Amino acid sequence: MDTRRVFLIAGTSLTVLVAAGCGSDDSSPDVSATVETPPASLETTTTGVPVLPGPEGAFQLPGEGVGDDNAFTYDEAAVPVGSSVNIESEGENGRTTVTFNATGLAPNRDFGVHAHTRPCGPQPSDSGPHYQNDVDPAATPEKPSSDPAYANPQNEIWLDVTTDANGNAQASTTVDWEFRDGEANSVVLHAQRTMTGPGQAGMAGDRLACIDEDF
Q: According to the UniProt record, where is the region Disordered (predicted)?
């Protein structure tokens, strides 16, 4: 099982060591206490409290990410900086289950979510086309597959979601195949739910965000 986790910053904590009995009695024990600051919004700067950068892998603007794995948002209104995604993929006995959990996305809206062939990059198009188990022979890099015989949720990984009032969402899919090694490298969030008709199959609007995922 390959697990990729991205975490949303909710706040920060400070550990304060309080020495009890700091008078003439040296035998008094030391007491350790933990004091938590109230959760702070990622978009709010509190006087005297530094705003910490997102943890490794959190959605960042292109050029501002940290670590070896990319997690980029190309639309901060739909996928805010610091929003979180958790992707789990498990392949066994010729079948694969992929689960998608999101927190902190734009509330009450649809997203198309697909596995893509290439890693994320500064440009939305860097992640390449959808991963397909049976590759459409008519597809090209300039014209990705839109044939329902190939662009469908049985031949690709589709994890379309609708977020709740808090921007949270979950989806899971199981397909009757396993990923080929090294050929699926990211998950992309799109602007709308995935279409299925001829000439439009697999299309889901603009690419809003991308996260590297080693399937």
A: 25-53, 109-152
